[in-house]
Amino acid sequence: MAEQASVDPVKAELAQLNVKKAKRDVINATEIFTFVFLGGQLEQALLQLAQQTNMQLVMRSVSSKASLTPLTLTAPLSDILTTLLTDSGFEYQLLFDEQVILISLKAAVLQPNDALSTHGEQILENDAWEHILITAQGSQHRSILASSTSVTYLNRDKLAKLSRESTAEILQQVPGFWVEGSGGETNNNVAPRGLRGGEGFRFISLMMDGLPVVYDGVWPDFFLRQDLMTAGVETIRGGNSAILTVNGPAAVVNFISEKGSDVSKNQWRFSQGVDHDFTRIDALSSGAITDNWYYALGGFYRFNDGVRSPGYIADKGGQVTLNLTKRFTQGEANFSLKHLNDTTTFFPPIAMTNAEEPQAISGINANYGTLLSSDFNQLHFKTPEGIVVRDIDDGQKTKMTRFDMNLQWDISDIVHLNNKFSVADMANTMYAMMNLGNDTILNATEQLNSPFVQNFINKTQAEHPNKIIKAAYSYSHDQSIVNAPEHLNGNGLVTFAYPLYSHYQQQQWLNHLNADIELEHWRLSFGHILALNSFDSLPLDKWQGEILTEVKHQPKRLDIVALDQESQIIETYSENGFTSYAGPGYLDGDGRVLSHSLYGNIEWQPLDKLIVDLGIRLEHLSLQSSASTDKIYDLDDSQFQAVYKSDYTFTKKESFTELAWSVGGNYQLTKQSALFFHFASGFEMPKLITFGNEIGWGDYLDSIPAEVGFGEPVTLNFAEGGLRMADNNWRMTATLFETRFNPLAFTVFRGLYDNQESLFIDTNTRGVEFEFDINLTDRFHLSGLGVWQKAIFSGIPNALKESTYNGNQITRTPELQLRLMPSYQFDNSEVFMTLAYIGKRYSDIANRFALPAYTVVDLGISTALTDNIKLALLAKNITNTVGITEGNPRDGIAYSDNANFYTRAIFGRSMVFNIELSF
Fold first, then answer.
1. pTM for the model
2. How much of the chain exceeds pLDDT 70, in percent?
3. Could you tell me which residue ranges the TonB-dependent receptor-like beta-barrel domain spans (predicted)?
4. 582 sits in which H/E element
5. What HEC string does 219-288 produce?
6. What pLDDT band is residue 741 in, cutting at 50, 70 and 90?
7. HSE-CB of 690 using CA atoms within 13 angstroms
8. Could you tell me the residue range of the domain that residue 577 belongs to?
9. In angstroms, rounded to a whole number, what is the distance separating the alpha carbons of residues 237 and 256?
10. Is 351 exposed, middle or buried (0-12, 13-18, 19+ CB in 10 A)?
11. Is 159 within the bounds of a domain?
12. Cis peptide preceding 192, ω within 30 of 0
């Protein structure tokens, strides 16, 4: 049974191990033994040694299958153990007070502050690459050094220096990922190795303890939160990620949960915002229940107004997780129950100006401003089925209850069985205020002179011939008049907000059965992955209308009214801010997914220093979905029309079969360095929501074309080669890579009733990524990571006018990213910093709207008051940089020269104070 990363190798914790022991003669460290072993498995030798020395053997890791030749040793116990464990991948701890021999896997890959010398200095041990990977590997014993793919491992210490609210923020620590985390705690974008921004987590399989969060990769970060129960994060990029999981051809990110052990652990963390309203409590308790049963229980609860405070509680809720583990001679069984009930806010783009050097429009602070407001509560949406009332502070409500069961069983010394099972009930209701094209940012005075307003005034004048009628604005909440619209909020602008509602409800069953066969020079892995998803409601967009608002922080709704000469309101054009109950589309549907994958992975070690692996996966997918088209309705009690689902519902069923393959290898140059390479072809399967989008945007009524369906699989091809090197005081990895996505759909929509604009474009990315750690002095540590990539569009047919965009930089993705993270240790404290540079990007395919490069500085300090009390202060974006993560994804394929535009900026400076108690 392979050891999970949740076992903490820190020797300070091992010394606290409390075991029951029988009365025995006490031995000491200098006592000499004569040990005779006739040959066999390492486990047999250890058991024989423990019996001979009258010590208790505690195998906290695994039973090793290494074979030993006959030997005779006369030496102290420590020397005998050193000889037995040489080159085994295991280490020992002798607890003479407890009369225990403790055997465990060698320490995980160290990050800063993983290990401290007796004087508190940071050190890097010689076994820096010995962390045993449990994600996307065919073998149970593949270390980072021996891996044939790009690997990044984030351990507890690294996670402790990061804010755990956002999955996207954590993944900023992974080279090759472009992260757009400006949307809030959830609903963000992470793009791997040249994929354009704005695709969610597409082509990345987010996993919890080895199983996907969601099969199809739609909205995965809604159902994933990090807290003290997160023991580590493994990220595998390219290569085997296409073989050993589903819909993760570009990368696998596995969040590994805490498990109980013989070491009792209790930890509490209280976090409080210093300059904004943020309160969070995290807790963890773990330990032994009986000799063979262990538990880990933890979770969090928080409420938060947000750095861009919308005037109401933006984020509120939490989760709790219980892990129960049963360990036995031949394996381990783990049972996990997780419940998530949380509400988060999606922060839409803000209005800015000056495309050459973007800056906030007057009335909106680029660091702290938002176009959300409590004035959007209690909105009454008129539909053909009646009035629907919604509150913007409902935000994005997520609920999930998930049960996992994992069995690891060593059937024999050669055959190992692993089965992971999960069943989950997941729901999310997303309600947000969005923007559309940049041309919806309007001059307030000119808008009053627009044709539709003048028609309204002319009609009102005709109905009141004895009055002098003029157009004006009033605030919807109290009908007070805006006296000087040309100076409204210092910018003289108005805009439209577009309410977007979407509901997600599904039940998901996942099972991953794997059998490993370990021979002398071969390791064979075979498996079956089952995914069954039943959607009562697919997360399709339901655009709800158009609302006229101010352009300022926490805006209010506006009405267009007709005033008489005494400034009295005679008529009102809009309805509590609504100028329409129609949106770009109203999409509704449900569906079912059934996926079977069969895979095989072979590792061959023809030489002591060379490992070659070959993998293949065949997936058969069946999709069935029912979805309705939309229709424009006249409303009896309104002058405006509504877009709502029609009476026409269509059902489509299709099946797909695809093959993925990978070939990789690793050659170990020295004990601490290796070369690796990998070639792979993976795929992303079609998604249920594609069918609903196709017919919802197609204006179909009584029939749909035969070719309308779920689309086709997307093929991804990867090539990479890299070098890992380390010494006592430094380590680094550098990787050359090429990625091809064939093809990607680029979709843009604009205006109220317009259809989508779509292009299918091939992309090609070549680049180099790197990460390193170095001890510059005994106390001064520097780590860093980065990527330079040339990511371009290619393959647009010459027959299309857009073929002129071939060779352009992929939208929203920078060519250069760098992150430097220095830290300094003194006494019981540490100061650490992150300096991040994000290179130039483009908002549009035509590369006309450049998003400037920017630099962000984060700072933190932590101090241990006692062994059990630790204080920390974390400050983000301390220079209040205005960094633009994206332009307006809902504008045209080619940017038009608007003076003002929508864009999303990173959050301004914020500080959070932590106090942590452990006992």
1. 0.86
2. 90
3. 470-878
4. none
5. CHHHHCCCCCCEEEEEEEECHHHHCCCCCCCCEEEEEEECCCCCCCEEEEEEEEECCCCEEEEEEEEEEE
6. confident
7. 19
8. 265-439+497-918
9. 17
10. buried
11. no
12. no
CA dist 607 and 665 (Å) reads 12
CA dihedral 558, 560, 561, 567 (to 10 degrees): 60
Q: Rounded to an integer, what distance in angstroms lies between the CA atom of residue 67 and that of residue 50?
A: 18
Query: How long is the chain?
Result: 919
pLDDT tens string 493-505: 999 999 999 999 9
More confident residue, 60 or 855: 855
**What per-residue confidence (pLDDT) applies to 585?**
85
Q: Are 512 and 552 in contact (CB under 8 A)?
A: no
853 is written with which tokens?
Answer: 């490069």
CATH number for the domain that contains residue 72: 3.55.50.30
90 token code pair: 């295991």
Strands 756-775 and 730-749 turn out to be: antiparallel
Q: Does some domain include residue 230?
A: no
Residue 215 is encoded by which pair of tokens? 């099969």
**CA–CA distance, 529 with 210 (Å, rounded to integer):** 12
d(CA 553, CA 311): 10
In one-letter notation, the amino acid at residue 627 is A
From residue 244, give the alpha-carbon distance in Å to each of 66, 139, 146, 254, 352: 26, 11, 18, 12, 44
Vertex 289: Cα angle to 286 and 293 (nearest 5): 95
Gap between the Cα atoms of 579 and 585, Å rounded: 16
Nearest to 188 by CA among 772, 640, 812, 723: 812
Q: Where are the beta strands (DSSP E) in 411-469?
A: 415-434, 441-443
Among candidates 349, 187, 183, 188, which has minimal Cα distance to 889?
349
Q: What is the mean pLDDT of residues 385-395?
A: 94
Report if residue 450 sits inside a domain.
no
Three-state DSSP class for residue 485: helix
C-alpha–C-alpha distance, residues 696 and 538, integer Å: 13
Element (H, E) at 160: helix 156-160
Determine phi and psi for 515, rounding to 5 degrees: -125, 130
The DSSP H or E segment spanning 711 is: none
CB 157 within 8 A of CB 703: no
| Residue 130: per-residue pLDDT | 65
CA torsion angle 900 903 907 909 (round to 10): -30
Among 50, 77, 106, the domain boundary falls at 106
The tally of domains found in the chain comes to 2
Q: What is the pLDDT of residues 570-629, one digit of tens each?
A: 999 999 999 999 888 899 999 999 999 999 999 999 998 999 999 999 999 999 999 999
CA–CA distance, 852 with 207 (Å, rounded to integer) = 33
Please identify, among 56, 77, 106, the residue that sits at the C-terminal boundary of a domain.
Answer: 106
CA neighbours within 13 Å on the CB side: how many for 578? 21
Helix (H, G, I), strand (E, B) or coil at 451: helix
Answer whether residue 632 is part of any domain.
yes
CATH code for the domain of 355 = 2.40.170.20
Tokens 């880990």 found at: 296
* Separation between Cα atoms, residue 612 and residue 605, nearest integer Å: 6
